Amino acid sequence: MKILAIESSCDESSVAVVENRTVLSLCTRTQEIHEKFGGVVPELAGRTHLELLPNLAQQAIEQSGCSFDQINCVAVTRGPGLVGSLLVGLNFARGLARGLNIPLRTVHHIEAHLWSAEMDREPIPLPFLALIVSGGHTLLVIVRGLRQYEIIGSTLDDAVGEAFDKVGKLLGLSFPAGAAMDQLAGEGDASLFPLPTLMKDESFNFSFSGLKTAVLYRLNSQRNDQLVEARNVAAAFQKSAVDSILTKCERALNALDAKAMVCAGGVAANSLLRSRLGTLASNFHIPCFIPSLKYCADNAAMIGYLATKLNVAKIGHDSDDAIPRWPLTHLSL
Ligand code: KG4
Ligand code: ZN
């Protein structure tokens, strides 16, 4: 079955063609218009999706080597995300499905991130522990099967990607700052800007706003100190954030009988997080599944991949209206 998939929940406009477990094409445009505002402007995001999606769909079809007539199903993100952006994607997808006289399948964005770790790999052994880290979410989930999710930890304040972006802003980096922070941190020395590792409590929850504030206070008090270099601040923040995430993952692995460690979402592109999670999983003698970089950030291939899994499992969906706030646990079988 060939699926044309659409992702438009935030500031990435993306269309892919996926056939079973294979991605035939993936065309994504990150909306640069938000950079000058230091964050995503919802109205502009919706309007830009409207401008970009038709061309991206055309490109995705051409690159896949198929024609629109050969597409069997249209898949699209239904939520969570920005309501205007979701509505543009959903309406575009509805129009395509109706015009081609094929079914429409709507998909949960975070569930798609979760299973993106399986793309180009063998099936993930069950049950597994999943860490979902993005600009809006930081979740620790026990996955016992498709649609069998138990959230055991989440952030009490900022998502980790959001914290990377805010600290990047303090350092004068443009939005979104995660990838640039990662690169800068690679050139820095974390020990030259010591920061606390937060949330050492017994829960599986996370907190990053205190870490961000600690960076701000230290930067303010040491403004004239020549030793304070952006690369060292980035390295210190990244180390503390990753340390605190790893502490919770290790605790969860100790408490569970997980057969694999999974990490997905935009922040799964972080080089330190990827290598530390790999080491943690090998200490527990389990495989680590992290998507390749092209599937970490928001992309339509993961939407098509999940749609395939849901179709194969014959899991239906009730209606196709947008759901801007949609917990992962509010999904029916
Ligand atoms: O999953 P995603 O593309 O969009 C959301 O659904 O939120 O995640 C975007 C987030 C942004 O906060 C971005 O700064 C962060 O992922 N990010 C990174 C890296 N690459 C992207 N954070 C840390 N290190 C990276 N290499
Ligand atoms: Zn995302």
Q: How would you explain this protein's 3D organization?
A:
This protein has 333 residues and is α/β, with parallel strands linked by helices. Helix content is 40%, strand content 19%. The protein is built from 9 helices and 10 strands. It has helices spanning 42-64, 83-100, 109-116, 160-170, 178-186, 209-221, 230-255, 271-283, 300-312; strands at residues 2-7, 12-19, 22-30, 73-79, 104-108, 128-133, 138-145, 148-154, 261-264, 288-289. Strands 3-2-1-4-5 form a 5-stranded mixed sheet, sandwiched between helices. A 5-stranded mixed sheet has the order 8-7-6-9-10, with helices on both faces. α7 runs parallel beside α8. It is globular. The model has no long low-confidence stretch (mean pLDDT 95). 5'-O-[(R)-(carboxyoxy)(hydroxy)phosphoryl]adenosine binds next to α4 and α5.
Topology record:
Elements: E1 2-7, E2 12-19, E3 22-30, H1 42-64, E4 73-79, H2 83-100, E5 104-108, H3 109-116, E6 128-133, E7 138-145, E8 148-154, H4 160-170, H5 178-186, H6 209-221, H7 230-255, E9 261-264, H8 271-283, E10 288-289, H9 300-312
Parallel strand pairs: 1-4, 4-5, 6-9, 9-10
Antiparallel strand pairs: 1-2, 2-3, 6-7, 7-8
Helix pairs in contact: 1-2, 3-9, 4-6, 4-7, 5-7, 7-8
Bound molecules: 5'-O-[(R)-(carboxyoxy)(hydroxy)phosphoryl]adenosine and zinc ion.
Quaternary organisation of the protein chains: single chain
**What is the string of helix and strand elements?**
EEEHEHEHEEEHHHHEHEH
Bound ligands, each once: 5'-O-[(R)-(carboxyoxy)(hydroxy)phosphoryl]adenosine, zinc ion
Distance between the termini: 22 Å
Strand content: 15-25%
Shape: globular
Rg over alpha carbons: 20 Å
- Would you count the extended β strands for me? 10
Give the overall pLDDT as a whole number: 95
Structural class: alpha/beta
In DSSP terms (H or I, runs of 4 or more residues), the helix count works out at 9
Largest sheet: 5 strands, mixed
Question: Strand order across the biggest sheet?
Answer: 3-2-1-4-5
Specify the helix fraction band.
40-55%
Low-confidence spans: none
